[in-house]
Design brief:
heterodimer; A: alpha/beta; Rossmann fold; two-stranded antiparallel ribbon; 30 helices; elongated; B: mainly alpha; 59% helix
Chain lengths: 723, 44
């Protein structure tokens, strides 16, 4: 065992920086998933990165910074969570490449901050000890120290510092405790000597590893890092991308493995056996349990939340509450915003002289953007609930409940977290697939994530449900509107699983792997972080409304206004509008694509709104607002206009509940997002292969959308629901 | 051509340019192996 002196104690306040005049200090944060790395990153840097009480929230490297105690700028890089440096999945690969200084896009860190969950020290020390052996200066943040104490764990921190040979600082990141000592520790750690390996491996095994280590040292690794890498490579039995091109490495791994086997050792288990044996000794010397471990509150809740029958039922009830609240609670706020926008439109309209500019502002901007802005309260309520479920730790239970279904489908249980992220937006959902090790599982998940109903679909669902589904109570506290919304979300999820099953049995055939899922303890969500995530979501929604939706509304207004028709002034206002629209570019495009949407029961106005929403789904609502001139002198809200709209030719209602349901189903399945296509291209391998997968995704989703909408309309009409 | 029409033409042209640029930047993100979505897609 090492006899290194403790370089720093947590309460050491008399630290003199070794090299205060150096340029910025670069710190990389790594740790097991769900140890509070991003909370600590946010606390250190003052940034607002997304956090959650489940594994796999961070899948990208994020950079921030703060001013160190010595006045130096400290740049901090938050790396994705990782259980070890085995680099099984793309996000673990990212972490390893940065730590080894082999990421061409990033700097090599001066100090690595390993965030360790104090209440799960044994498991967390595996990664920590691997990082220590890389030879880079390390500081350990013993995070969630309060949780460990509340569970009766007593950690002898000075003894742990002595055992590991690196500075260790207890922290409670969510309350900002321990930050100042941590900052001081980071500042001095760069000047400390690299600690030696803390455990030994059997002597004959050491000799067997020497040629392999020599290979790695020749490639530029330090002797300590080469030893750690050699053990890791034996465990993986393959060369990772970061070591591609090291001459003779694959042969050296094979030779070392053969020699170890001849000694009766198992090369793949060598590292975990010796490392965990050493960790067990460290724990014995440094941790005492004040009271025996027993059932805690989380265990008691989980007896119901994870129950075979009660678990899914609780999940369903929670979802019902969420979607019902989206309707019931948002209505007064929506009415307020709607009235405000209408009043502003009238005020601006009264000031501007009659003409094209007035029409652009009132009929284009106010009618288009205003009809989307109305949905802000619903976005806020939906994300408040999602945040509540994420921060409390329930999302991990939802993933656990889904694992059985996922396995039946042929997907890895880990796929459910990216799918859950897809409820907010498909882009981070697709990026979250980086936590999946198997490339086929990962690709199958990427292909179905956009089927999860993202927040951009919410305005479309809400508009149509609000206009055509009655608020009839079907259950105490649940109306038909809330239930319809829930069905739309469930429909996307169920079809995503079915499509994944098809991919896994055809193009992406492969074995099903078991999932090891860490269930975090339930926590009372911090109102501050919950508020921050809701505000961030609302800001994004407003930003989108003020940029993309605004620009598209202006373009669509121009298409609906020009060329000008010779209007018969004797006609009623509605007929005059109809005449102008039919003569405009938008009308001509609409009539051109009408044959494609007529089988679905849609007129050209719906057709052109769908076509426009391929730029962004919410544009369906703003196009409707522009087409019907909502917000002008006509005081009718968009909902009321849709309800009263008549087909110009047949005189029948243009929108029926059946058409509305068909439209919603179309939006559940259609891929209408350029950003999602771009991310699929990149994450599916980039280049030609990436484009092929993205093309397949777009095509199958469009076919599914059209086919399902047709089935709803044709089937419903045949059953007599057409009126 | 009256003044209102000129102002409208300028606004519409700017909006068209903005939409085209945004679409181009979103698609360009497909070529950057380690970046995010490339534009404010709403993903947060």
């Amino acid at each position: 065992m090492s006899t290194l002196q403790s370089p720093l104690s947590p309460d050491d306040s008399a630290i003199v920086p070794l090299d205060a005049h150096r340029a910025a200090l670069r710190v990389a944060i790594i740790g097991n998933p769900n140890t509070g790395k991003t909370t600590l990153f946010n606390a250190l840097t003052g940034l607002r990165q997304r956090v959650g009480n489940f594994a796999g929230v961070t899948v990208e490297r994020v950079e921030g910074g703060f001013k160190g105690p010595d006045g130096r700028r400290v740049t901090v890089l938050d790396l994705p969570g990782s259980y070890s440096l085995s680099a099984g999945s793309p996000d673990e690969q990212v972490a390893l490449e940065v730590l080894l200084g082999r990421d061409a896009d990033r700097w090599r860190p001066d100090v690595v901050l390993v965030v360790v969950d104090a209440s799960h020290l044994e498991r967390n020390l595996f990664l920590a000890s691997q990082v220590i052996e890389l030879g880079v200066p390390v500081v350990i943040a013993l995070n969630q120290f309060d949780v460990a104490e509340s569970e009766g764990l007593r950690i002898d921190v000075p003894e742990l510092i002595h055992e590991l040979g690196v500075p260790i600082v207890p922290t409670v990141a969510k309350r900002g405790e321990g930050l100042e000592p941590l900052k001081r520790a980071l500042t001095i750690a760069a000047g400390l000597p690299a600690p030696a390996r803390q455990f030994s491996i059997p002597e004959p095994a050491q000799d067997a590893l020497l040629p392999l280590e020599a290979c790695l040292v020749a490639d530029g690794l330090s002797a300590t890092a080469a030893r750690m890498e050699a053990l890791r490579l034996l465990g993986m039995q393959r060369v990772g991308p970061h070591l591609d091109g090291v001459p003779g490495l694959a042969d050296a791994i094979k030779a070392a493995s053969d020699e170890l086997r001849s000694m009766g050792l198992v090369p793949t288990r060598l590292e975990s056996e010796v490392r965990y044996a050493w960790i067990a000794q460290v724990i014995e010397r440094t941790v005492t349990r004040a009271r025996p471990a027993g059932y805690n509150l989380s265990d008691r809740i989980d007896r119901f939340a994870l129950h075979r029958v009660w678990g899914p039922l609780i999940f369903l009830v929670l979802m019902m509450i969420v979607f019902q609240a989206v309707f019931s609670w948002a209505t007064p706020l929506m009415d307020g915003i709607e009235a405000g926008i209408a009043a502003a439109g009238r005020a601006v309209g009264a000031v501007l002289p009659e003409g094209d500019l007035r029409s652009l502002i009132v009929d284009g901007v106010f009618a288009g953007v205003g009809s989307v802005l109305v949905f802000l309260p619903q976005i806020a309520i939906l994300f408040a609930f999602i945040g509540l479920l994420e921060h409390s730790g329930y999302m991990a239970r939802a993933a656990f409940l889904m694992d059985r279904i996922m396995r039946r489908v042929g997907l890895h249980g880990k796929s459910f977290i990216p799918m859950l992220s897809g409820y907010a937006c498909a882009v981070p959902g697709i990026m979250a697939t980086r936590t999946i090790e198997d490339p086929k599982d990962r690709l199958a998940t990427i292909m179905v994530v956009p089927l999860m109903s993202c927040s951009a679909r919410l305005p479309v669902y809400t508009l149509l449900i609000g206009a055509f589904v009655p608020a009839t109570s079907i259950f105490p506290g649940l109306t038909l509107q809330g239930a319809t919304m829930l069905i739309m979300y469930l429909l996307g999820t169920v079809v995503a699983l079915a499509v994944a099953a098809i991919f896994k049995r055809t193009l992406l055939k492969g074995p099903v792997r078991p999932m090891i899922l860490e269930l975090p303890p339930y926590r009372f969500p911090s109102l501050e972080s919950l508020g921050v995530s809701v505000v961030q979501r609302c800001q994004l929604f407003l930003q989108r409304a003020g940029t993309v939706i605004l620009a598209l509304s202006i373009v669509l207004w121009a298409l609906a206004t020009y060329p000008k028709a010779t209007i018969d002034a004797s006609l009623p206002v509605a007929a005059q509008q109809e005449q102008q629209l039919a003569h405009s570019v938008l009308g001509r495009i609409g009539h051109g694509i009408e044959p494609l949407v007529r089988p679905l029961g849609y007129d050209w106005k719906i057709g052109v709104s769908i076509a426009a929403s391929f730029a962004a789904r919410e544009v369906f609502v703003s196009t409707m607002g522009t087409i019907y001139g909502v917000g002008t002198d006509n005081e009718q809200a968009l909902t009321a206009r849709l309800q009263s709209e008549r087909n110009a030719v047949t005189g029948k209602r243009a929108y029926t509940p059946l058409i509305a349901v068909g439209l919603m189903v179309f939006y559940v399945f259609a891929l209408m997002c350029i950003s999602t296509i771009a991310v699929t291209v990149r994450e599916a391998g980039g280049g030609r292969i990436g484009w092929q997968w993205a093309g397949l995704q777009f095509a199958y989703m469009l076919a599914l959308a059209w086919g399902s909408a047709w089935l709803v309309y044709a089937g419903g009409t045949a059953l007599g629901f057409g009126g | 051509m009256n003044t209102q029409l000129i102002v409208v033409a300028l606004i519409v042209a700017s909006a068209l340019f903005f939409v085209a640029r945004r679409a181009w930047r979103a698609l360009a993100a497909a070529r950057k192996p380690k970046s995010g979505c490339g534009s404010d897609c709403g993903c947060g």
